[in-house]
């Protein structure tokens, strides 16, 4: 059975920003506060390290509606039975990821700009990460920002469920959903905040107000 998902509030974990509080506790707070998707992104870690952290996160998301997505590590995702994998343009292609995961898992793909939105194959993809809307320090060497007008055009062209990515926070919720996004992806708006649960809850409440 195909894994259903809600992109509304999509937290991308950053080990540096989560700091001493950690990704596990941040995830626990975020799930309690209303996060609908959690992505484990540990670019400099080994697959074994991602698997170990992922297992701890899976214990938190199991039994909830929150989906656990692993960034660019199909082996770790399979090892912990995560809900899916998200890949970028420089990672394994989504068709290969789909073949490895099977038909029931979630496959997300970062779409960095209008040209890519016009030319990618949507067949193996369940949702796109569209952007970057703004410049962001959490992802070095990202593509040029597209702004909210560019975001709306990317979503229109791609024709898939879309979560907006790139430098977004609670102040951008209304504009994000007005552009046609199905969700907003955040990093520093939750990771490293004094009270991650409260930060998540504030975002969640704003999203409920503005979501289509």
Automatic annotation (TrEMBL):
EC number, UniProt record: 2.5.1.3
BP-aspect Gene Ontology terms: thiamine biosynthetic process; thiamine diphosphate biosynthetic process
Entry's cofactor comment: Binds 1 Mg(2+) ion per subunit.
Residues binding 4-amino-2-methyl-5-(diphosphooxymethyl)pyrimidine, per UniProt: 39-43, 71, 110, 139
GO molecular function per UniProt: magnesium ion binding; thiamine-phosphate diphosphorylase activity
Occurrences of domain Thiamine phosphate synthase/TenI (ranges): 9-190
Pathway involvement of the protein, from the record: Cofactor biosynthesis; thiamine diphosphate biosynthesis; thiamine phosphate from 4-amino-2-methyl-5-diphosphomethylpyrimidine and 4-methyl-5-(2-phosphoethyl)-thiazole: step 1/1
Full protein name: Thiamine-phosphate synthase
Designated gene of the protein: thiE
């Amino acid at each position: 059975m195909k894994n259903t998902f809600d992109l509304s509030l999509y937290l991308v974990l950053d080990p540096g920003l989560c700091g001493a509080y950690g990704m596990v506790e941040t995830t626990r707070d975020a799930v309690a506060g209303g996060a609908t998707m959690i992505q484990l992104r540990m670019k400099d870690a080994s697959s074994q390290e991602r698997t170990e952290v992922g297992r701890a996160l899976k214990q938190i998301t199991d039994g909830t509606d929150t989906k656990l997505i692993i960034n660019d590590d199909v082996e770790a995702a399979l090892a912990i039975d995560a809900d899916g994998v998200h890949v970028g343009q420089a990672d394994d292609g989504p068709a290969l990821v789909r073949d490895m995961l099977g038909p029931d898992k979630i496959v997300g793909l970062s779409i960095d700009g209008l040209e890519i939105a016009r030319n990618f194959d949507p067949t193996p993809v369940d949702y796109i990460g569209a952007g970057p809307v703004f410049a962001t320090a959490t992802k070095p060497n990202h593509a040029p920002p597209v702004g909210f007008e560019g975001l709306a055009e990317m979503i229109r062209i791609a024709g898939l469920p879309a979560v907006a990515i790139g430098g977004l926070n609670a102040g951008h919720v209304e504009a994000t959903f007005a552009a046609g996004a199905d969700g907003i992806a955040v990093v520093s708006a939750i990771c490293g905040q004094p009270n991650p649960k409260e930060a998540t809850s504030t975002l969640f409440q704003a999203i409920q107000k503005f979501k289509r």
